[in-house]
Amino acid sequence: MSNPEIRELEAFLALAEELHFGRAGERLYLSQSRISQLLRALESRIGGRLVDRTSRRVRLTPLGEQLHAGLRPAFDAIVTTIDEVRDAARGLGGVFRVGFQGTANDAFLRAVAAFRDTHPECAAEIAEIPLSDPFGAVHRGEVDAAVVLTPVRDDALVVGPVFSTRPLTLAVSDRHPYARRDGVDAEELADGPLIGVAGAAPEYWRLAQAPVVTPGGRAIPSGPAVSSLQEGLALVRTGRGSMLLCHPTADYYVSHAVVFVPVTGLPDSSLALVWHRHHETAKTRGFARALADVAEAAG
Known about the structure:
It is a single chain. This protein is an alpha/beta fold and 299 residues long. Helix content is 40%, strand content 24%. It has helices spanning 6-18, 21-28, 32-46, 62-90, 106-118, 136-139, 203-209, 229-237, 247-252, 282-298, and strands at 51-53, 58-60, 94-101, 122-129, 145-149, 157-166, 169-173, 184-185, 194-197, 222-226, 243-245, 258-264, 269-276. It is flat.
């Protein structure tokens, strides 16, 4: 029997943990048919079925459960060892790429400065991440870590420091009736369209940024879906709808045409540093410490 390819093992592990071909494909940025193809190749090499598939569900066979139980810790150990050896070879030199979503707020920029001061041998580069795809750049290896809006429910990602936990604000046109209010209750979101997020962002994340029902169960009209923050604010200015934004973003985008009104009755928003659990390095841990120190000092 020939040895399995690494991509076959990754596909099996993703499928074993997601129990859904579509979600496994999203996790690895592969098509559903490619996941199925990789699984068939692995089953052929092993000589037995690893997964039972029906129209309603996916579940591991006893052989699949045995393979998953032994493979997951071994796979993680291999990845960790490679990263540790790479770190030892490179030290903290090279480049550390960190992404940010929405705005590069003060806490984020202070952390970048602190990391550069502490590790002058490492070039820290920053890049903006699309609002519509908060986790894609990390999964694809385009950045080493990223500051994103929560929630984060992705087993492939490590959630590091969580910071800037503040109440949400509602961005409205300066002509909107709420623009002269000191606050808005979450139930009042049902009174007008709410601008959502389009693109590759997971559904749970998109619903957190633009819920479709109030906490009391009232339907919230769906407004346009946007792929960038600037696009969303442009629609707000033209009266096409309102948009829920975290407080740091509201502080950054002060505009005479857009008013940011505090919202009560919804969970606070927060930012988090995330990175891929299979690509953690000494540089990642160093930046996470710098960001945690900055967040703690800010209270």
